[in-house]
Amino acid sequence: MASFAPEPPSPLRVTVRFTTSIPDLLLDIPDPNETTAIALKHLVRSKLDAPTNKHRYRLIHSGKLLKDDDLLSTALKIPPPPLELPIQKEKSTAPAPRGFDRLLSGGFTPAEVNQLRLQFLSIQSNIHTPDTMPSPEVLRRMEDAWIDDNAGNTGAGAGEGGFDFGDDGLGGGALDDLLWGISWASCGR
Taking every annotated instance into account, which residue ranges of this chain make up the domain DSC E3 ubiquitin ligase complex subunit 3 C-terminal (predicted)? Predict the structure, then answer.
């Protein structure tokens, strides 16, 4: 069992601006939750040269005088760091929708998808004999191809490794294929 140790607080970058001609002093406060205003004054003194390090200092933030025992995190209203929890992405075990099921995410209802699939199967049953009818897996791939091609396949795709959707581009479609099959069979006698 893994234990999560709290991360050390990130240092606080403080700019000390003086009312005199002393240039701004940039300081890193290692732990603002444990550092008081008096500790900051001592740190400021340690960074200045004599005689300025002997002057009396008042720390003012947003128009408010900081008391010596104020914690910097409280007096400066530093928001607590966000709680970081280990995030594990859930891996989806459900396969991505295929075929006309992809249209469900596009706003189609299940009834509309079913009707479209029935029409597609009707066309395919006119093109194929029962023993040459594509398997359900191949039918899903054909549905995907039909959607991806935006129904723009004009018959040429079948010869290029695509699917024959029953339209030869001449307007006859599945009926022409069926008549062609009958004519070809009768020539063989």
Answer: 98-183
**94/96 Cα distance (integer angstroms):** 6
Under the phi-then-psi rule, with left for phi > 0, alpha for psi from -120 to 50, and beta for the rest, what region is 109?
Answer: beta
As annotated, the residues of the chain forming the CATH 3.10.20 domain(s) are 12-75
Name which of 83, 97, 90, 98 is nearest 146 in CA terms.
98
Of the listed ranges 21-35, 73-87, 90-104, the least confidently predicted one is 73-87
DSSP E strand boundaries for 2-126: 12-16, 25-29, 60-61, 64-65
Sequence-distant (6+) residues with CB within 8 A of 60 are: 66
Q: Please state which of the four CATH numbers 3.90.1210, 3.10.20, 3.30.200, 1.20.120 is assigned to the domain occupying 12-75.
A: 3.10.20
